[in-house]
Every structure is written in C-alpha cells, then in structure tokens.
Amino acid sequence: MKIGYYPGSFDPITFGHLDIATRGAKLFDKLYVAISDNPNKNTLFTAEERCRLVREALKELPNVEVVRSEVLTVEHCKILGATHILRGLRAVTDYDYEFQLTNFNRRISNDIDTVFLMTEGEFSFLSSSSVRELAQFGGDVTPFVPKVVAEAIAAKINKRKVAK
Fold first, then answer.
1. Which domain holds residue 24?
2. Fewer CB atoms < 10 Å away: N or C end of the chain?
3. Annotation says 17 is catalytic
4. Does the annotation count 26 as an active-site position?
5. What is the pLDDT of residues 121-143, one digit of tens each?
6. Choosing from 2, 41, 68, 160, which is the catalytic residue?
7. First-to-last CA distance in the chain?
C-alpha cells in the first residue's frame, strides 16, 4: 500500500492546495493531509478550525484523511506508515526552499521520499497569505478558496472587526 503525507498549515486551504491534494490522492492508496502549526506564521484560523475546513474541502476524496500534526514531518510519516511526502510547487521560487527541506528530511530519515507536483498554472500565483491579506482588506476571496472556506474567512474577519 502506497501511503502519502501532504503537510502544511493550510491557513486557509486554497484551490492550489486542493489541486495538489486531488492529484496526490490519485498517486497514493492513502493520502494523509496533515495540518501543522508553524510558529513563524501568524494564523487566521486555529488548527482545529483548519482541520474542519480542510476535511470539508476534501470530503469527496475517500482515500484522504485529514490529521493534525504536532511532531516533525518525517516522524509523523513513520507513525502513520507514510513512505512519501507530497509537496506542491508553484514556481521556481518554491524550488530552492523545497530542495533544502527535502534534503534535510532525507538526512533525518532516508526511508521517506518526497514527491513534487507542479500546481496547475491557474493557481501558480496563489498563496494562503495573499488570500488572508485580500480578505483583511475586504476583497473577494471566492475565486481562490472553496465556498465553505470563504464563508469562514468572512465570519472570522467580521468577528475581528467587531472585537476592535
């Protein structure tokens, strides 16, 4: 059984992420989409909220399971039995970071390989941070994220405005 592991903060999950997850689900018998916290990122959603949104966005993929991760990626792969890390590349600018990360992970565990998929061209510019910024300035995020995510973003932004 080929088991893949697609890690990310997914804050929020975008159509670019969904593209990679959907195509990755075809490559693996089972694909874990792992929600992690990056201490260097100021997230809009809690990890629990992100898990719920990602589950909803990926509910049509029966071999995909959304999990939360609080350990190193390679360690979580070992726990879950995953032999491949799935990563998406948008542009050449992603490659350098991903190349370094892949080599670092291989030094930690050479039993786990990384598989790269290029994001469809229509999503090559798309990032979670640009979606968050657009939303914070009142822009329409519906072309970039699933409806459930757009609604959650609007509710979160409105709640923050009311709190101020």
1. 3-124
2. C
3. yes
4. no
5. 899 899 999 999 999 999 999 99
6. 41
7. 51
Phi, psi at 151, each rounded to 5°: -65, -40
In a domain, 70, yes or no: yes
Alpha-helical runs (H) found in the chain: 15-27, 47-57, 73-80, 92-108, 128-136, 147-163
Active-site residue, 41 included: yes
- Dump pLDDT digits (tens) for 30-88: 999 999 987 777 899 999 999 999 999 999 999 999 999 999 999 999 999 999 999 99
Amino acid at 147: K
Decide if 138 is inside a domain: no
**5-14, 48-57, 84-93, 153-162, range with the lowest pLDDT:** 153-162
Residue 82 located in a structural domain: yes
Question: Which entry of 9, 36, 69, 128 is annotated as an active-site residue?
Answer: 128
Q: What pTM does this model have?
A: 0.92
